[in-house]
Write a structure and sequence with these properties.
The complex is a heterodimer of chains A (495) and B (475).
Chain A (H helix, E strand, L loop, with lengths): L5 H14 L4 H32 L5 E9 L4 E7 L1 H20 L7 H20 L3 H12 L1 H9 L4 H28 L12 H6 L4 H16 L10 H8 L2 H11 L1 H14 L1 H28 L3 H21 L3 H32 L10 H4 L1 H14 L6 H15 L3 H30 L15 H19 L1 H19 L1
Antiparallel strand pairs in A: 1-2
Helix pairs in contact in A: 1-2, 1-4, 2-3, 2-4, 3-4, 3-11, 3-15, 3-20, 4-5, 4-6, 5-7, 6-7, 7-9, 7-10, 9-12, 9-13, 10-11, 10-14, 11-15, 12-13, 12-14, 13-14, 13-19, 14-15, 14-19, 15-17, 15-18, 15-20, 15-21, 17-19, 17-20, 18-19, 18-20, 20-21
Chain B lengths: L2 H6 L1 H19 L7 H17 L6 E3 L4 E3 L1 H29 L5 H20 L3 H19 L6 H32 L4 H7 L4 H18 L6 H9 L2 H26 L4 H23 L5 H20 L4 H32 L10 H4 L1 H15 L5 H15 L3 H27 L13 H19 L1 H11 L4
Antiparallel strand pairs in B: 1-2
Helix pairs in contact in B: 2-3, 2-5, 3-4, 4-5, 4-11, 4-14, 4-19, 5-6, 5-11, 6-7, 6-11, 7-9, 7-10, 9-11, 10-11, 10-13, 11-13, 11-14, 12-13, 12-18, 13-14, 13-17, 13-18, 14-16, 14-17, 14-19, 14-20, 16-18, 16-19, 17-18, 17-19
Classes of the chains: A mainly alpha (495), B mainly alpha (475).
Amino acid sequence: MDILSLFIIVPILTVVALVFSKTLERSRVIAMIGSIIQAAMAINLVFAYLKERAVNDDIMVFTKDVVWFKNFNIHYNIGVDGISVALLALTAIVVLAGVFISWKMKELPKEFFISLIVLSLGVYGVFISIDLFTLFVFFEIAVIPMYLLIGIWGSGPREYSAMKLTLMLMGASAILLVGILGIYFNSNADGGPLTFNILDIAQVNIPIAAQKLFFPLVFVGFAVISALFPFHTWSPDGHASAPTAVSMLHAGVLMKLGGYGVFRVAMYLLPAGALHWSWFFIILAAFGVVYGAFAAIKQTDLKYINAYASVSHLGLVLFALLTLNKIAWNGAMIQSLSHGLLTALFFALIGMIYGRTHTRDVAKLGGMMKILPFIGAIYVITGLAYLGLPGFSGFVAEMNIFVGAFQQPDMFNRILTIIVVSSIVVTAVYILRLVGKVMMGPLLINEVTDLPKATWYEKTGLLLLMIPVIAIGVVPFWLSDIIMKSLEPFIQGVL
Amino acid sequence: MDFNSFILMRHEMLLLAIILILVVAEVFTPLHKKTSIVHLSVFLFGIHTAVGFLTIEYGSLFGGMFHTTALIQFFKNVLNIGVLILLLQSADWIQEKIIQENRGVEFFMLLFSSLLGMYFMISSGDFLMFYLGLELSVLPVAALAAYETSKRISSESGIKLILSSALASGTILFGISMLYAMSGSIYFNDITNLTATSNLSILGLVLFFSGLGFKISLVPFHFWTADVYEGAPISIASYLSVISKGAAIFIMMILLFTVLKPLMQIWENLIYVIAVATMFIGNLFALRQQNMKRFLAFSSIAQAGFVLLGLIIGNRLGTATIVYFVLIYIFSNLAAFGVVQAISLKTGKENIKDYEGLYRTNPNLSLVMMLALFSLAGIPPVAGFFGKFFLFTAAASEGYYFLVFLGVFNVTISLYYYLLVVRAMFLRTSDNAIPYFKTKLYMRMGLLITVVGILILGIYSPLYDYIYELSKIIY
């Protein structure tokens, strides 16, 4: 069994084991074991990749190619480069943390963990696929469990949010399907066979007219899941209604599929289309960044604040990708990872606070630092990392993005960059207000002075996410090194 | 009739033998043992299905009136599997209701006669055989639709079906007569060679297409569908929406791709418009349905609209994707109808609202239903996704990107109403949810086969390759 297919097989085995478990105790232990194995595999993969890269110059390593539907030339074709390895590791960490955070899931625990693991299976699958069809299959597998996860275990208007999220994401993937078919039927432009293989299609000169036609479809299809303005409306509602672990996984991992897909499929396979359309989508992305930040200021629900902050920060990823600049791309990848970890941390912390105080209303919270010192401390650190304090991952990412974006010589890009940079200030406003009010401010919850302290599983979950944040911030060149090398083929292809 | 004819008409002969055996067996069955007729029928039909898979030679009979090819044989086997699942699913209903009224064997006779008609219809080599098969396939079903004599709505359903079928048959005959007038022959092969685009042939095509559109319930010929499904016994609604529709789609495909191929310029546009209308109308009307049978009726109208995306390209890829899709559709839809039937038989409840909280009480039935609906909606990794994806691929291969775009838009609409049922079963809890009950053995087997099919058929790629291989034969 090759090292990558295990990322599909281990989740499937976990699900099978979960089907036969009856109680919460057993379900969570099985889910934990499954996700620990995945995390171990992901760490192993990082080192294996570094070793392999030294001797292997291919774009994708650990490839495996099995014919699936031979008449359509569909293959089960997998492989990874540095970007996928980094994102796989992120996914494994967030999933493991998510299982720990859901340790006390009372209602239908078995079904909850099954949906969670299926979701992670889809995400792993997208990151390892080289074949467009396989990628699309996994993409949809990742989306559909969200309906049940939000609908059954969510809070507030959960049915509405779940339906809205599912329909918008599935609608987007339907548009994506047209784009993928368009790419497929133009993949023989140089006389070769029709193919879904991303690496092969990248070598083909797809006619410019087709690129211009299909780029928007593929781009929007992926970007909706990254909450591209104006298709972001599912995101705040979905995040606010979802249970803690699902918000973590969704904002932390699932939304990264958008940026990844835009980069790997839309821009890599349709470079002329990207050049033609980038001015339009970059305006949307830039607007999303600023809009998300301002919207976050006005929110009073902790989860809504973070959901809009995600819109803003993932808009930044799309913005960086569309600037078509190497350093900005590097920044976009680091931002994906950094935001994944930080937003997962935030949602985990909010879940813990909500679980104890039963409110997420900023007005009703205050002085959490005094009664929940551990959670409070992590919250403050996360907040500071989120607004881009040096020493944490957020700074590295944003620095790269803005330096790269400003390098573009034309006036249009520079003005947009300046506008987008202003969002940092706005981010600082809402994060600092939050930290000041909820954590440091006077104690507001009447008569409650001793809420239960953080338990071992909560601490484990938080530390799992916190360690990489600091690691990226302190030694960013490790990560940049992995990513930069993998950017080379894209730079040759697109720029 | 020499031995060779028997071999070629093996499906038809065997089924006829089963019908006769059942008639005789009923005479010799004592009154208190009538339920054994059900066991016998299921057993015999199971053997019939298994025998159908033995490979044999292909050829034509009666001077070209009847012919078989590997693809036709394969499709007969697909229909057999569908009917077998249907028998398993409705065995309990027959035992509990129909046998008590002493009308058990007639049920099987009518059902099998209709299937026999379908065999002849899809094997036909000229319009006479086609028409005979068509009539034989419809008339017994009308009797079956009115089978629940205690319910007025069932009689209404039977009358509606027979009237609209008669109208459709008349239209088809009118169309055939014009094609005959134009070409001077009723044999498919001759017509292919003699057809030229003229006003007469176009009129013949349109009338013929409209008549067959009734059987597939394409918009605007769909008005009978929901009422008939609602009134008919569930197994008959399921038969109409799965087997009958599948066979009609198959013969329509064969005729358009071979006999009426010279008129492709005309029917391409016709199908484009009807595909868009069928998808939109089917989906939009399904949104507000409360009754599961009506809901599945509109959903099956919409599914027929998707099939037209494969029909429009008129080549081997289209044939393969359509047959593949119909096969998957049979399994998905039968699973959905099976669950509806199990619940209806036990509790008499048929509304979506009654399904609230079903997962808490009957997890297995809810899971089957969810898989079926996901397959109908086209969500991976279940089979329906592959069927739909390949239909879209087929349409895109000839550059119908806008049609594909409308198709995927409709997939999103359809997802909404399929999720409404999932919402009722999984998201909601209810105080008077349907209590836990154990399904009987036959029903469980019927559902199990469909679930295995839904899970395996898509991922197992050699099946599609096999169908694609068979599809070359009709060209």
